[in-house]
């Protein structure tokens, strides 16, 4: 195994899927390893550096949704792309709500999967270091982009997915300025991801919930009809 290559963990109980996806990843210059369930997945994560997880929703024992929720509770865990045979909108929304960075429906094309993987990795790697961006303070909140964390007045920590983190960072760096979806895509380096484009509204909804921002009358991330979204608080950087 080449330690300089990006390492991807495939968590799926279907051996044929694991074999096909492994071959695809190797052909595209990735390292890969596999796990059949959540127990094996966490064992692999403890054994080696993993850069991204492909996580099937329908797993024996704990399902992928529950496992993704646990992964997102630890800011040190890698990004997650959910794999599922279900194409219902509610399934995609639930996957995104528990912190998945993207969602791919089986059967998927090889080009699509590789493009999704590269886009998520590009978004994660673009995040600047903590030393360069510091901590953002607004209202009752402290926001640490390097750790992908929100901290409230009671010092309760809320973990963000990498997509949520990208969007919130773009918003706090441009307070009081309407940002269209295209502009958010540009700022988050996600312009080439149609999936990210389609899910921006879902990411904004999840951010509002995590910020305790009333969805019907938001005070922090306001909707600018026809223009996009506005971060409506003054922001201090520490």
What does this structure look like?
The protein has 238 residues and is of the alpha/beta class. The protein has 2 domains: 7-126, Response regulator (Rossmann fold, 3-Layer(aba) Sandwich); 130-237, Winged helix-like DNA-binding domain superfamily/Winged helix DNA-binding domain (Arc Repressor Mutant, subunit A, Orthogonal Bundle). The protein has 9 helices and 12 strands. The strands form 3 sheets. A 5-stranded parallel β-sheet has the order 2-1-3-4-5, with helices on both faces. Helix 7 (162-172) packs across helix 9.
Short structural description:
By secondary structure, this protein is of the alpha/beta class. The protein has helices at residues 15-27, 38-47, 64-72, 89-97, 110-126, 130-133, 162-172, 181-187, 194-210; strands spanning 7-11, 31-35, 52-56, 80-84, 102-105, 136-138, 141-144, 149-151, 157-159, 221-224, 228-231, 236-237.
């Amino acid at each position: 195994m080449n330690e300089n290559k990006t390492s991807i963990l495939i968590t799926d109980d279907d051996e044929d899927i694991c074999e096909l996806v492994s071959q695809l990843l190797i052909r595209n210059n990735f390292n890969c390893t596999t796990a059949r369930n959540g127990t094996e997945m966490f064992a692999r994560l403890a054994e080696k550096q993993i850069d991204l997880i492909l996580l099937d929703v329908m797993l024996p024992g704990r399902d992928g949704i529950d496992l993704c929720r646990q992964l997102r509770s630890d800011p040190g865990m890698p990004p997650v792309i959910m794999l599922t045979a279900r194409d219902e909108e509610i399934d995609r929304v639930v996957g995104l709500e528990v912190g998945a960075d993207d969602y791919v429906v089986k059967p998927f094309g090889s080009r699509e999967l590789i493009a999704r993987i590269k886009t998520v990795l590009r978004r994660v790697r673009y995040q600047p270091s903590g030393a360069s961006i510091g901590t953002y303070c607004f209202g009752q909140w402290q926001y640490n982009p390097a750790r992908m964390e929100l901290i409230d007045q009671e010092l309760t920590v809320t973990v963000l997915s990498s997509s949520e983190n990208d969007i919130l960072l773009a918003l706090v760096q441009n307070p009081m300025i309407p940002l269209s979806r295209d502009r958010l895509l540009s700022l988050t380096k996600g312009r080439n991801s149609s999936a990210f484009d389609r899910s921006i509204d879902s990411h904004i909804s999840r951010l509002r919930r995590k910020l305790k921002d009333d969805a019907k009358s938001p005070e922090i991330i306001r909707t600018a009809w026809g223009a996009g979204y506005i971060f409506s608080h003054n922001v201090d950087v520490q």
